[in-house]
Specification:
single chain, 0% strand, globular
């Protein structure tokens, strides 16, 4: 019993080791949550965080189902997706390494105070849309799932991986909502974001090179 569970725990740990860099790397989702915190307060920002995490499951779902279909029916299509994933990972890795501090989150100008209560539906929807309309997770998840997760892993287990990843993403943005709302905290995060970019850039490049050496089954 324990032997059958262990490989899945190893896969999950490998996924989370990679995904951790994607979580903390500055991007559109983080900018949205920070903006919500400043304009509408923590309640709205936390609801937006749940919207981002829920949207992530949409990406995970079609990635798992689509990747399984590609692998089982067309090696050619799998290789096309694979090389798109390699190109994307190398692109964002190099871009992260070359980025300058001024190109990161714009936290210099203070935003106006909260403008009144925002509906829960709107706050949740803003987070959901910010993530769902971002095409980057497509190749990101295709890349890490095809690199780390075995084709023999059951679909139900893969969905379990996705739920863990979405939960961690929500927890991260809830933490951002709680602790990154003051000017001092925003300035501190802006300073360390440069090193987060450096580290995540190297990880994405390494992952892209690893994926490039993988042979189609």
């Amino acid at each position: 019993m324990e032997l059958s569970v262990h490989p899945y725990l190893f896969e999950l740990a490998s996924l989370m080791a990679i995904f951790a860099f994607a979580i903390v790397s500055p991007g559109a989702d983080l900018a949205m949550v920070m903006r919500q915190s400043i304009l509408h307060g923590r309640r709205s920002a936390i609801l937006t965080s749940f919207g981002v995490g829920t949207s992530l499951m949409v990406h995970v779902t079609y990635t798992i189902l689509g990747l399984g279909l590609v692998i089982s029916q067309s090696i050619t299509l799998f290789n096309i997706v694979k090389w798109c994933g390699v190109a994307y990972l190398l692109y964002i890795g190099i871009k992260a390494l070359k980025a300058k501090p001024a190109e990161r989150l714009d936290v210099a100008a203070p935003e106006p105070a909260a403008r009144g209560p925002q509906s829960a539906f709107k706050a949740f929807g803003l987070g959901f849309a910010a993530n769902a309309l971002n095409p980057k997770p497509v190749f990101f998840f295709l890349s890490i799932f095809s690199t780390v997760v075995s084709t023999q892993t059951p679909v139900a287990v893969k969905f379990g991986y996705g739920l863990v990843m979405a939960s961690c993403l929500i927890l991260w943005f809830v933490a951002v909502s709680l602790f990154m709302t003051t000017p001092a905290m925003r300035a501190r995060f802006a300073r360390i974001s440069h090193w987060i970019d450096r580290a995540s850039g190297m990880v994405f490049i390494a992952l892209g090179l690893k994926l490039a050496t993988e042979k189609a089954a």
